[in-house]
Task: inverse folding
């Protein structure tokens, strides 16, 4: 009981420090806004230190929440608001280290979902959008990508190496952070497609590098295919989007069959279906719009190779599915289709 009481007193002291830092900065303007932000960071770091020294989880949570939410009050006052994103990354890194020192995986979950909410609130409330890629814009986009890898993968690796018990909520963090990365980067810049391609390249490298670990290879291949698909949505015209999704689905289906990855095959089926529907719609729209000028040679020079490429990819799909059936691959998706 005395230990809980002592933790409560330390937590109360942290809260008072956060309030004091706010009132001395943007409220009474006794110190500069940048210095107020630095003071909030120092308070949070000191809170994490006290949490480790006294092995108290309450202080760790208060340091995380206070350090993440207190700078929100500076949004309308700070001259360079984008510094908030690297600030959040630093707080999250401290929380990640603290979760391992305290052997408490729940702290990573709290940090990840809290920072997802903070970043979205920051983007929406401040109407942040990068028309041009300045240095601070690149830092902001890079910070969001680092958050994805930090919370989604570094935390899992550290906890596994420390032989801590992983719960199911922690295992879905990479998927939740993947959705957050797609949403936030798409909201921030029109260059999101190139950023998704860069992330896909990183996961392809991971897939090639970690051959002894099949679970990591499956996740890397799944995320690489997903990033490529969303990059295609951002970069390609409607006429070619279906073909690219279809081709990516064929590649994933081949790799999923070769490596016997059922989850990758499931993603491949979804991409093939989406690509086929999108492609059929594009072909129908192309022929409908060109029906009055179909006798023009320039129209045929584009439509005929387009349809020939479509037929080739459909033949490749039928060949792969035939190989699956002949090899006895009776997955749940295949049984529903056939």
Result:
């Amino acid at each position: 009981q005395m230990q809980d009481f002592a933790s409560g007193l330390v937590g109360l002291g942290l809260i008072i420090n956060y309030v004091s830092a706010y009132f001395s900065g943007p409220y009474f303007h006794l110190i500069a806004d940048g210095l107020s932000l630095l003071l909030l960071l120092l308070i949070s770091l000191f809170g994490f230190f006290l949490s480790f020294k006294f092995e108290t989880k309450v202080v760790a949570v208060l340091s995380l929440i206070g350090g993440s939410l207190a700078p929100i009050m500076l949004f309308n006052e700070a001259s360079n608001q984008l510094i908030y994103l690297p600030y959040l990354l630093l707080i999250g890194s401290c929380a990640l280290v603290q979760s391992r020192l305290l052997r408490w995986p729940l702290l990573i979950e709290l940090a990840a979902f809290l920072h997802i909410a903070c970043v979205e609130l920051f983007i929406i409330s401040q109407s942040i959008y990068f028309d041009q890629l300045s240095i601070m814009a690149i830092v902001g986009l890079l910070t969001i990508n680092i958050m994805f890898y930090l919370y989604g993968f570094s935390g899992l690796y550290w906890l596994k190496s420390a032989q801590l018990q992983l719960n199911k909520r922690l295992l879905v963090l990479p998927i939740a952070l993947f959705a957050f990365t797609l949403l936030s980067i798409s909201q921030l810049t029109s260059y999101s497609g190139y950023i998704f391609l860069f992330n896909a390249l990183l996961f392809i490298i991971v897939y090639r590098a970690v051959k002894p670990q099949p679970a990591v290879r499956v996740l890397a291949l799944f995320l690489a295919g997903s990033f490529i698909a969303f990059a295609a949505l951002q970069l390609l015209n409607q006429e070619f989007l279906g073909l690219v999704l279809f081709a990516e689905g064929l590649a994933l289906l081949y790799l999923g069959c070769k490596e016997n990855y059922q989850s990758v095959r499931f993603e491949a089926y979804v991409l093939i279906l989406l690509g086929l529907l999108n492609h059929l719609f594009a072909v129908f729209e192309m022929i409908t719009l060109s029906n009055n000028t179909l006798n023009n040679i320039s129209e045929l020079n584009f439509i005929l190779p387009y349809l020939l490429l479509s037929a080739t990819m459909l033949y490749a799909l039928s060949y792969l599915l035939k190989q699956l059936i002949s090899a006895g691959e009776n997955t749940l998706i295949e049984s529903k289709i056939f």
In short: The longest helix spans residues 297-326. Confidence is low (pLDDT under 50) at residues 329-338. The chain is about 80% helix and 0% strand. The radius of gyration is 25 Å.
